[in-house]
Write a structure and sequence with these properties.
- There is one protein chain.
- With 190 residues, this protein is mainly alpha-helical.
- The protein has one domain: Up-down Bundle (de novo design (two linked rop proteins)).
- Helix 1 runs antiparallel to helix 5 and helix 2 packs antiparallel against helix 3.
- It is rod-shaped.
Length: 190
């Protein structure tokens, strides 16, 4: 009779342990799926951004055709960003930072060309791109939040044992690498 009770207790402990492992594994899977979904949301916004840029460049060409270097820099930065493999967060972040910088220079041209600044098509494209940039920023933040939750779950005890046993690898944050982009912009009203 005592052996039967001991066997039942061992069985119950085994079942509790099994359900705990399954629960931790499923939690890690949910966190990983959240990261993948957040990354795809960044891709959606970046695709929209990539689609707007050629129209913006064409509009600027009509007014500032001799600003070829700036226009070519935007086109080259866009091409580099589009060519980055989908899952490489570090390369994507670097390419996107370069593209953001090039777009900033393109928008600065409008200050030198009042007719361009007054063009309705340019203003509309600029507003759409600004809206898209905001959405990209929110998507990056959401992605980084998801990565943070995944990493917290993956690294804390006892989930880290399950993560290690089932090979849940670390995720990279979407970071701004250029120190100049971390600085607050300088605004001057003259």
């Amino acid at each position: 009779m005592g052996l039967l009770i001991l066997g039942g207790l061992v069985g119950i402990v085994f079942l509790v342990l099994l359900f705990w492992v399954i629960g931790m594994y499923n939690l890690l899977i949910r966190r990983r799926v959240d990261c993948d979904n957040a990354w795809s949301q960044i891709d959606v916004q970046l695709k929209r951004r990539y689609d707007l840029i050629p129209n913006l460049v064409e509009t600027v060409k009509g007014y500032a055709s001799h600003e070829r270097e700036t226009l070519e820099a935007v086109i080259a930065a866009r091409s580099r960003a589009v060519a980055v493999p989908g899952g490489d967060v570090a390369q994507r972040a670097e390419a996107e930072n370069m593209l953001t910088s090039a777009i900033g220079k393109l928008f600065a041209l409008s200050e030198a060309y009042p007719q361009l600044k007054a063009d309705a098509n340019f203003r509309q494209l600029q507003e759409e791109l600004t809206s898209t940039e905001n959405k990209v920023g929110f998507s990056r933040q959401h992605f980084n939040d998801c990565v943070g939750r995944f990493e917290e779950t993956r690294q804390t005890f006892p989930a880290n044992m399950i993560a290690g046993a089932f090979n849940f690898t670390p995720r990279d944050y979407f970071k701004v690498e250029a120190s100049a982009e971390r600085e607050a912009p300088k605004v001057s009203f003259r």
